[in-house]
Amino acid sequence: VSIIYDLSFEFFPQYVEPRNQKFLSEQVRLSVERSSKIITISSNSQKEIIEFFDLKKADVPIVYPGIDQSIFYRRPDSEIKKVKSEYGIHGKYILFVGNIEPRKNLKNLLLAYECLPSNIRKTYSLLLVGAQGWLDEEIREIINRLRINGNHIQQPIKYVVDEDRPAIFSGAELFVYPSLYEGFGIPPVEAMACGVPTITSNNSSLPEAVGSAAITVDATSTAEITNAILEILNNQNIKKDMVQKGFAQANKYSWNREAKKLLEVLESIKL
Question: Where are any strands of DSSP class E within the chain?
């Protein structure tokens, strides 16, 4: 049994370092050829894997990621304040979580933030939480330009450890994840589990992950991202409704339930 999360390295090779892309393309195909079953993490990835490798649907079962709600839950204001202080985070913020690399589409989020009215940008910074990735020169140039022009683009002063992420999620006014492609997209579900209104892309598996609980946008349209941010910030009723729907959506992803699915797949293999 092999697990393939997605085929981003095949469909978006321009966002992968060439050596890594070549390695993945060769080795994943070899894994497929010698596997009885290929487990994946979304209907979208299942469809793409079946078509790309010419497989039967029965041989590509889905086991979703889970959310551990003993970890991802709305944290109290005292904890949020403490964690913000530890990482040098100030004021109200719009949050992005993910590696700083092109496929996450941080470029368009930065440009969309720049298009927000000045009073909104003065009130809400854009907080970027994520390790430095690859092919990120243009992203760093945009961040520097926005800062020079007076925009408050925050980044934590040190690496954010896993146990502090729920508090950082909980402290956000909203979470934006405008990725160009995901095999599933767990950060939007983690944000919703922490009671944060969420915006994400209408591509790949992301609509499947968030259901009707998030606002989905065309990731290539900075205007759609900007308008979605304003829609949430300017309407408390929409915000409250999204928070409640988000809790319900996050409840659908249980490690116990998905572990049972995984066990069923393993037990079905004839040794």
Answer: 2-3, 38-39, 92-97, 124-129, 153-154, 174-177, 198-201, 215-217
Contact call for residues 119 and 150 (beta carbons, < 8 A): no
Residue whose C-alpha is closest to residue 94's, from 129, 118, 69: 129
Token code pair at residue 144: 């520097």
pLDDT tens digits for range 127-182: 999 887 677 888 999 999 999 999 999 999 999 999 999 999 999 999 999 999 99
| Residue 34 confidence (pLDDT) | 95
CA pair distance 267, 118, nearest whole angstrom = 58
Does residue 167 contact residue 4 with C-beta atoms inside 8 Å? no
Q: Who contacts 17 (Cβ-Cβ below 8 Å, separation ≥6)?
A: 134, 135
